[in-house]
Amino acid sequence: MLRSGLSRKEIEGRIKEIVGALFRNIPSGVGSHRKDFKLSIKDQEKVLNLGARWAVNQGFGSLKDLEHIEEGGCIEGARPDLVSSKALERGKDQLGTLGSGNHFVEVGYVETIYDPKAAQGLGLFDQQVTVMVHTGSRGLGHQVCDEAIKKLIPVTAKYGIELPDRQLCCAPINSPEGREYLGAMAAAANFAFANRQIITHWVQETLEKIMRISPKMLQLELVYDLCHNIAKLEDHEWDGQKRRLCVHRKGATRAFPAHHPQVPMDYREMGQPVLIPGDMGRYSYVLLGTDQAMTETFGSTCHGAGRLMSRQAAIKKARGRSVVREMEDQGIIVQGAGRGTIVEEISEAYKDVAQVVEVVHQAGIAKKVVRLRPMGVIKG
């Protein structure tokens, strides 16, 4: 999530132009790639080792950004040598691209402030223009996952593990297979950090050009960047003692509390920012992690609203409708790689994220700070 120095009124007359420019500057959709940005094998290895640090070293953003990224934008223990040539081939020209499905770049504004002090601490103010970016490790990460599933399915039996579903295949963390997967997964996660960092650069460049303003006037800054599909080794209390555990957050996101050593210094007194995107027609939220999350959910909370309908059901539901026009009638400009992608993402396909966020807020595992309202969205 990015914050800016602009207010809603300053961009609402230009939002269609902004969305169109973002769509041109950030390749989106299945198999999307950049013609102007193809990595050599040597550079790919650096990306997989360094993550967002590599992007910053190349001039995409600043060192300050790294302080506001989970793990500083780089998961330790990455093993690029365990990433296959096929995965590398898929990823070589996909840095700085959005991908498909529910991935998006969303320009919105701060609509509601629940905790004024926390909002101020995050640099957020009423009607402020914000940008959210949701994407990951693209084809490279997908390939790493596919290959791991094929490799681990037979291994599960080897270690005497019974599963209700083959796709839950796994291996003990300290087994050769477990260690290899953690190394390949960390490499893919670092690719994702670099990808979002580079997209941030294209977002900034686009807004400066369309609004005809300088970086100093735009004041686009990273609030936070975090994962929602990753396994990480962390220290947690378990059975009354501190233990090193592997916490797998799938469709969940980290929510560390104030004073935790892994929370950036800028937010150390308030807690880790938690980003909860909704659907393209309603709203998204920023929350803060809590002490209760550490005791009840291993420092985790929800990632998003969650689907109510399959993609096929959503397409059937939207048959005969002009979803883009419906969105425009709501004051939201949407552009996607194809009609199918937009139709799959209709609001009815998702739970109301306001209800989901209220549950985690009342449960005390994350606390509400602000609600964001979309103005323009690009989809893959």
> How many runs of DSSP E, i.e. beta strands?
12
Cα distance spanning the termini: 18 Å
Regions with little confidence, pLDDT below 50 for 5+ residues: none
Q: Estimate percent helicity.
A: 25-40%
Name of the top-level CATH class of the largest domain = Alpha Beta
Q: Mean pLDDT, as a whole number?
A: 94
Instruction: Output the helix-strand order.
Output: EHHHHHHEHEHHHEEEEEEHEHHEHHE
What composes the largest sheet? Answer: 8 strands, mixed
Structural classification: alpha+beta
Give the DSSP E fraction (strand runs of 2 or more residues). 15-25%
In the CATH hierarchy, the third-tier topology of the largest domain is known as tRNA-splicing ligase RtcB
Radius of gyration: 20 Å
Number of domains: 2
Tell me the overall shape: globular
Description of the structure:
The protein has 380 residues and is α+β, with helices and mostly antiparallel strands. Helix content is 39%, strand content 21%. It is built from 15 helices and 12 strands. Strands 1, 2, 3, 4, 8, 9, 11 and 12 form an 8-stranded mixed beta sheet that branches. Strands 5-6 form a two-stranded antiparallel ribbon. A two-stranded antiparallel sheet has the order 7-10. The model has no long low-confidence stretch (mean pLDDT 94).
Quick take:
With 380 residues, this protein is of the alpha+beta class.
